[in-house]
Specification:
Helix content is 65%, strand content 1%. Strands 1-2 form a two-stranded antiparallel ribbon.
Length: 316
Amino acid sequence: MARKKKNVSPYKDAKTWKKDFKKNGVIYLIFLPIAAYFIIFNYIPMVGILMAFENYKPTKGLFGSKWVGWANFAKLFGGKEFPRAFRNTAIMAVMSIALGFLPPIILAILFSECKPKKFKRVTQIMSYMPNFVSAVVVCAIVTEFVSKDGPITHFLMLFGMKQQNLLASKVEPVFKLIYCLIGVWVGFGYGSIIYTTAISNVNGELKEAAALDGANRFQRIWHIVLPSIKHLVIMQLTMAVGTMFMVGFDKVLLLYIPKTYEVSDVLYTYTYRMAFGNKIDYGVSTASSLFQSILGTVLLITSNQLSRRFASYSLF
């Protein structure tokens, strides 16, 4: 009777950590500043989570302030405006993914199919530029364009819309749509970089073989390019779902007005008014951040499990 082979660990003959460090010491040294940055600015400040459960006073410090338990969360969730802010945040988050996820992929494919190198470089630079423009400048431009006498408003009037300041409209989903389109315009060029790099690594021989077999450009993209970047797309979608509730605080704060709170107020701006209004309340602001972090973590884990189940691929 033949003996069963024992399972041999693939790490049995692996090099020790010391040997690996000698071989890749330069890489470890390059990584040290990055590790130090995350430890100093991301992990050490996590002790500040305690403020979410305290009536924090700067004069008493983190460990001297009065412990209030869940009182800050009760104040946060008990506000009359919280359901409205949560609803607006959820709608804007879903709209941002729906409108903003595909454009970087489409743009990256267009760049990969563009043959004139000079034209390709110019268009790439132009698409990246909005990402480096200050949010204040972007919002100022948008405010002028959608004002009562703005060019976008006059263009829409050709289709029967009455003359008005679009940012002051309470009609759904005008404000949300403006916010999401700003995000698409600012981020789709910069977001296409990672997809452009992935597409450039696709085996060119596969495309040539498909072309010889009679496949047109669209068929080559659909059957070769997209399957080759499938895992990257799933990874980016998983990350997008995990961070979907981190709706841009700066752009909303610069665009909304008290008249449009009903359709524009989000969790960040709601927390901002509660924590830094007439009386500064660090506990409420920390409780809000902790709540959104937990919610983001749950969404990230859930989307990762769904991608593992339905696409046989997961981020972790």
